[in-house]
TrEMBL record:
Keyword entries, A-Z: Antibiotic resistance, Hydrolase, Lyase, Magnesium, Metal-binding, Signal
Name under which the protein is recorded: Virginiamycin B lyase
InterPro entries: Vgb, Vgb_bact, WD40/YVTN_repeat-like_dom_sf
Transmembrane residue ranges: none
Pfam families: Vgb_lyase
Cofactors that this protein relies on: Mg(2+)
One GO-annotated biological process of the protein: response to antibiotic
Domain of life: Bacteria
Subunit structure: Monomer.
Family: Belongs to the Vgb family.
Function: Inactivates the type B streptogramin antibiotics by linearizing the lactone ring at the ester linkage, generating a free phenylglycine carboxylate and converting the threonyl moiety into 2-amino-butenoic acid.
GO cellular component, one term: outer membrane-bounded periplasmic space
Length: 325
């Protein structure tokens, strides 16, 4: 049964102050030509995983040496998302294989978990682990699902408004939310029943693309069509929104660092953007190369990582002065 929530508090729209900032110097790591890195996931041992979408491989970068290794995932592979699971291994959403893929970080063994019959061409996108260690994933062609790693069981659900499920995130309490790009909404998944509850943002046709939780369980949303970053507060069932700086911002990726600062990629400005919710100010760092096309951002304490899918480059930004090189 479909449920729809509407904001009970009036949405607030702010215009942030954008400026180029020397506080966000990028360190660059070149990848093999044509790899087209889509997503990135820093690993516990200091390395960095990335999906080499064009090569059908999972990549590994050693930031200390710049050494890169790529692990083929199988014929027809086109990996989209990668995250590091509670087991320390990279877990991949592979649209080409229509499967969830796990790679053993020690042996490099590739294990594939195909989606059930009847769910071909799901257009798998991203994944997140809930508080019980269950992997939840999205598919743009109108599905979301879960994989129980202990048993390998996969269950797929039809999204309540059809096509669009894209970004997904877990809150500190282990709750799961996803964003629907085609549906222009976010949704909360009941991890016990699997039912998704649609939550409508205040801006129509905003193109919610990715979501990320902050330390208090607020859900931050990058809005592709509106060029806004928005936040949904489950406690008050309320929204706030801010327009990114620039003439034609296109907010693609969103990530919240350990200081609860919000990071976004702006395709329109070819820039990496940091937003401070306390001051409501933006810091903007332009990419030195045109069409960097950063589609996802992820990090670990002290570092924010972004894959430039258009330039075969990974970039890293320090998140505080104490860690500056």
């Amino acid at each position: 049964m479909r449920k729809i929530l509407t904001a009970v508090a009036a949405a607030m729209l702010f215009t942030g102050i954008g400026h180029a900032s020397a506080d966000l110097p990028m360190k660059e790591y070149q990848l093999p030509a044509g790899s087209r890195p889509h997503d990135v996931a820093p690993a516990p041992d200091g390395g960095v995983w990335y999906t080499a979408q064009r090569h059908g491989a999972l990549g590994w970068l050693d930031p200390a040496t710049g050494k890169v290794e790529q692990i083929p995932l199988g014929s027809g592979s086109a990996p989209h998302g990668v995250i590091v699971g509670p087991d320390g291994a990279p877990w991949i959403t592979d649209g080409g294989l229509n499967a969830i893929v796990r790679v053993d970080p020690a042996t490099k063994k590739v294990t594939r978990y195909p989606l059930p019959a009847g769910t071909a061409n799901a257009n798998l996108n991203t994944a997140a682990f809930d508080g019980d260690g269950v992997l939840w994933f999205t598919g743009q062609n109108g599905i979301y699902g879960r994989l129980v790693p202990a048993s390998g069981d996969i269950e797929v659900f039809q999204a309540p408004e059809g096509r669009g499920p894209y970004g997904i995130t877990a809150t500190p309490d282990g709750e799961i939310y996803y964003a629907s790009l085609a549906g222009s909404h976010i949704a909360r998944i009941d991890t016990k029943t699997g039912e998704a509850t649609v939550i409508e943002p205040p801006t129509d046709e905003q193109g919610a693309r990715r979501v990320w939780s902050d330390s208090r369980g607020k859900i931050w949303v990058s809005e592709w069509n509106s060029g806004q970053v928005s936040v949904y507060d489950p406690a008050g069932n309320s929204w706030s929104s801010w327009k990114l700086p620039g003439e034609n911002p296109l907010a693609y990726a969103v990530y919240v660092d350990e200081h609860d600062k919000i990071w976004l990629s702006d395709f329109g400005g070819n820039a990496l953007v940091r937003f401070d919710p306390e001051t409501q100010n933006f810091d903007v760092q332009r990419h030195p190369r045109p069409e960097a096309n950063v589609r996802q951002i992820l990090g670990r304490p002290g570092e924010v990582w972004a894959p430039e899918s258009g330039t075969d480059t990974l970039v890293m930004v320090r998140t505080g002065p104490a860690e500056a090189e």
